[in-house]
Amino acid sequence: MSTSTEQLSEQLAATTLLRFATAGSVDDGKSTLVGRLLHDSKSVLTDQLEAVEHASRSRGQEAPDLALLTDGLRAEREQGITIDVAYRYFATTRRRFILADTPGHVQYTRNMVTGASTADLALVLVDARNGVVEQTRRHAAVAALLRVPHVVLAVNKMDLVDYQESVFASIAEEFTTYASELGVPEITAIPISALAGDNVVEPSAHMDWYGGPTVLEHLETVPVSHDLTACHARFPVQYVIRPQTAEHPDYRGYAGQIAAGAFRVGEQITVLPSGKTTTITAIDALGESVDIAWAPQSVTIRLADDIDISRGDLLAPSGDAPTASQDVEATVCHVADQPLVVGQRVLLKHTTRTVKAIVKDIPSRLTLDDLSQHPNPGQLVANDIGRVRVRTAEPLAVDAYADSRRTGSFLLIDPADGTTLAAGMAGESFATTKAVAAVDEEEGWDF
Question: ∠ at Cα 402 (155, 405), nearest 5°?
């Protein structure tokens, strides 16, 4: 390989982006791991480190508490827990990263859903002294539900169990078995001590029995594909542009961000939910006309026919258009304090469209211990994962979440105060699930 080719390859590698989220139970050491990762990879500015050292000394700590690099809220520092999702941007010579440090407390599982919803990798921490606990199972289930393609199990605090290989092996086997049953496609287990820095950025001198990568090495080398052009092409309309000026008297464009796939001038498209068809005559991007545009570009699309199109409509290739329906069946992670009950009226937000809806049925709730489905629970409470059937007032073009994370997801919202009730993933819940007891369809839609 020539020198110029090598340089080009290095430049391309350095521009790749990995989005990953941390998760784990309370006090498993997530914030300390993130702080250690940032510190040892030289991604912390001098003034940031000085501020952490000052805050640590004021709390009577001799060594800097690296968890303070991410726990920025006063309540987080006082309680020693993570409450909000802390996003951090850093880079090495091999890759750029967007990190979402999510809370471990069961009360804030909703924030873990937020952080992992766009992640390519979930980094799940387990305290080597406690092993796999209920919250570990819940986070594994959420990662599987959100179709996160890569999961790393970081068995932390190995220094407190004398770096015993048998402790690590037992925890890794239990978690891998559980996550595999959920359909997680790839699981990598790494023994670490975030406090001491073992196997975070530098290899550990205390665990010669482990021959795998450090956390950073794995993050830098895990294969990541952001090629959304291979997905079903979808364009949710966000805004209709009608200047009606002397310079542009007849201009009518539909602006938004391409959710997936690619669109080309001359392509026949279908407008959903109306089902009307037309042809793309022009695509405007950054003030210039282009022949093709792809996700995640923000563009304005112009069409051959004057069709009634407004915010919330979806453009898709006529040969690959989803079916619009008023019936949505999905798995949801309930994130609100108040229960979600059968018969409840909600708002359903899908891409740029928000419609009235009613919860017609809750066929099952996932039992985290053995991954069985509890039939007909009647309601879902905070942090429950369950199946729902929703009837919408207007047809929606919803893809299966397995096919598209962007157009297969939605939110259920309380119409009274705008509170987010649940995050939904349309279609089958997990890649592999245990059978659910048959439930009769409820008749008599209100819409």
Answer: 80
